[in-house]
């Protein structure tokens, strides 16, 4: 890659971004139909008669959770590991064409996702019945199937734990401490990855597991549901994610940059801002979105989670595919530039967030299976079906097909 640069086919960032979004919506719509049907077929074949004989409602829920698991483990978690923690380490070790480079790296990510899932289930399933291979893939009766659904749900949201812990190591802490005490890309990348995995596993045990399993000893509950309900927890998480992403996705290191750029102090300040911001905004947005939530028939906090996730999608899209328009050449003042971009993101994100809640049933990657009856990820997962191709296109594929390699 030393003699290669990435050039855009459409020079103006707004026009290029609009075309990219149209392409991504089409790709997500078609891609989810293929992904969902293929994995439902594979899981159905593995489950055999055990799955085929389940009641229709339980079977549908089982397929929804298991297919969701393939997407969360192979796509979401691996993107965080490969692109953020590893910094796309090893992507250009072979002199391949633009498209082949992206495909090779994507297949590597999928393979790592399968290995990670296999290790996770193998060790957890030794003593935890809901995580055993047999229960997860070949439940013998309705009771085991319901247990498998719980197991899949908890395992799937290890991806949320990855997001909550491993992304801030990059967005807030700049891969500290490895970036400060090492000059080797290898040690910085893999040190950040394995520290992040430790934090993700710790967070999964502390936060995710009690959200799905209420444990008891002699009839006495020994765990509580975090935040009182999963809807409230997931809403808080989306707000937390928005605030810890903001400094790296358009805000140019602010607001903690006002205090210091020295790590780990800068990261801790950013973390505190994200935590406090999430607690402040959750009741405000819940109150504002209650009428809309009532209209569409969902919990107000679930509406908050969806609404904020849409804003996050716009934030990421604006950063990666609209190149943080307007740029420094158009607006030299950093503060003016950040404020303009934030207004754009919040405005577009708010409008689309409301529209998504009202039109979820229309989107092929949201709630519309087009009569094919394949699993759909719904109000939150469906948004990731758009988000992940958008991120893969930017990092794994270097914005292909909206860009191309050329010699310097």
**How many discrete domains?**
1
* Major beta sheet summary: 2 strands, antiparallel
Order of strands, main sheet, comes to 1-4
Estimate what percentage of residues fall within beta strands.
under 5%
Structural class: mainly alpha
Record field, number of beta strands: 4
Overall average pLDDT: 93
Name the poorly predicted regions: none
The ordered string of helix (H) and strand (E) elements is EHHHHHHHHHEEHHHHHE
Can you put this structure into words, describing what you see?
The chain is mostly helical. The protein has one domain (4-407). The chain is built from 14 helices and four strands. Helix 2 packs parallel to helix 6 (158-166) and helix 10 (230-245) packs parallel to helix 12. The longest helix has 40 residues, at 13-52.
Compact description:
With 408 residues, the chain is mainly alpha-helical.
Per-chain topology:
Layout lengths: L3 E5 L4 H40 L3 H30 L12 H27 L8 H5 L4 H15 L1 H9 L1 H4 L6 H4 L3 H28 L3 E2 L2 E2 L8 H16 L19 H32 L3 H22 L12 H26 L18 H18 L7 E5 L1
Antiparallel strand pairs: 1-4, 2-3
Helix pairs in contact: 1-2, 1-14, 2-3, 2-5, 2-6, 2-14, 5-9, 6-9, 10-11, 10-12, 11-12, 12-13, 12-14
Keywords: Membrane, Transmembrane, Transmembrane helix
Organism: Vagococcus bubulae
Protein name: AAT family amino acid transporter
